[in-house]
Specification:
About 35% of the residues lie in helices and about 10% in strands. By secondary structure, it is of the alpha+beta class. Bound molecules: 2-acetamido-2-deoxy-beta-D-glucopyranose (2 copies).
């Protein structure tokens, strides 16, 4: 399931690319306050001609997309109240099946509930640890006292490590899971499973409660420390995760919901395909201009640095830095490209053909 979240993150970024051309028709009110947002400079590979057209739109991007949208203030206030640190009342914080069944959201999005869930995921004692063998990447399954399960995707790289090579090169980055969660919450996508950075002491919190299966996929390294190579499609005995000098492994703890939680699956047309022989429609057709009005409306709220600011604010409640400044600047550049792309699409097809008002 965790791969699905990673997939979901990609999908989500791609979804962002899809959705945007409304501004010809609706101009949002623009903040009059001077803001501290330096519009990132963007260089594009202009080889497919559609990129050149989009670049033209980028050059003439209306100023509303380079400054803060005042309507976002109220949204940000609600988010902050949902994430601010709070007294945790275990075990009542975990998602409630009746709420999920009613189709409203994964958990109530108000009054510090998100902050409480993250705190509980980060600190609850671990009763059992096993390999989570599904998927391509090394993950553990943590059973917390109180019976909630979490996936744990260990850290493989420092935040500033650059992976070279193809799009699938290297391991998954654990912080991307958590970043995706905050991004989704900022976009009001209320079905994304909560995810938080957690540190686990291998000798104290894993070894004593590890299943036999997990113990079989652990070896001692040259410093006699317990390292894990796990069980998964790409797991190899020479590619272990080892504790740091404090004996801890850092990772993304991701809420895991199994039966009886039932979810409908909606496939995004912006999902990517890694098989070059089976490309998705958007990968083959440079004129693909669809996807969802409410998503676009939300993207419009995030202009002028609000997206970066919000993710930093929310993750600061957990005392975590989730990405480098370069990453945040890259996210802001991508947002500007999305604005330009949707405008290009509206300019070409008209908003009625571009936006879908219902899922
Ligand atoms: C978030 O989505 C819910 C429906 O899922 C909606 O009721 C609510 O108004 C939305 N909030 C914002 C700020 O758009
Ligand atoms: C681990 O071994 C495999 C061959 O089994 C090799 O392809 C891979 O590069 C090795 N990984 C490292 C980190 O050395």
């Amino acid at each position: 399931m965790s791969m699905n979240y990673v997939f979901g993150f990609f999908l989500f970024l791609l979804l962002l690319i899809a959705l945007n051309i409304y501004f010809f028709y609706t101009l949002m009110p623009i903040s009059k306050k001077p803001i501290n947002f330096n519009v990132p400079s963007i260089k594009l590979d202009l080889s497919p001609s559609v990129f050149k057209d989009i670049y033209d739109y980028l050059n003439y991007l209306p100023s509303q997309y380079k400054s803060r949208n005042q309507k976002f203030q109220a949204v940000q206030k609600t988010l902050i109240s949902s994430f601010s640190p709070a007294i945790v009342q275990l075990p009542d914080v975990w998602p409630d099946q009746s709420l999920v069944a009613s189709g409203s959201s994964l958990y109530p999005h108000k009054n510090e509930v998100a902050g409480q869930i993250l705190h509980a995921m980060k600190t609850s004692p671990i009763a059992l640890v096993d390999n989570a063998a599904k998927g391509t990447q090394l993950k553990l399954l943590l059973l917390l006292e109180g019976k909630q399960k979490l996936y744990f995707k260990p850290k493989r790289y420092e935040l500033d490590h650059v992976i070279r090579g193809s799009i699938v090169a290297g391991f998954d980055r654990h912080n991307a899971e958590v970043f995706a969660y905050y991004l989704a919450m900022t976009m009001n996508l209320t079905w994304i499973p909560p995810s938080v950075i957690r540190k686990v002491n291998v000798d104290k919190e894993i070894v004593p409660v590890a299943t036999l299966g997990l113990k079989k996929t652990m070896i001692r390294n040259a410093n006699a420390k317990h390292c894990i190579y796990g069980k998964c499609f790409y797991c190899k005995i020479n590619e272990t995760v080892c504790p740091d000098h404090k004996g801890e492994i850092e990772g993304a703890a991701i809420l895991y919901l199994d039966k009886p939680f039932q979810f409908n699956v909606y496939k995004s047309p912006w999902q990517r395909n890694y098989h070059s022989t089976k490309l998705m429609e958007w990968q083959k057709n440079s004129d693909f201009c669809k996807l969802k009005l409410s998503t676009w409306r939300h993207l419009e709220l995030l202009s002028g640095g609000s997206l970066t600011e919000t993710i930093k604010l929310l993750s600061a409640f957990q005392g975590v830095k989730l990405a480098t400044e370069e990453h945040f600047r890259a996210v802001e550049r991508r947002l500007l490209k999305l604005y330009a792309t949707v405008q290009y699409c509206i300019g070409k097809h008209g908003s009625a053909k571009v936006f879908k008002t219902q899922w």
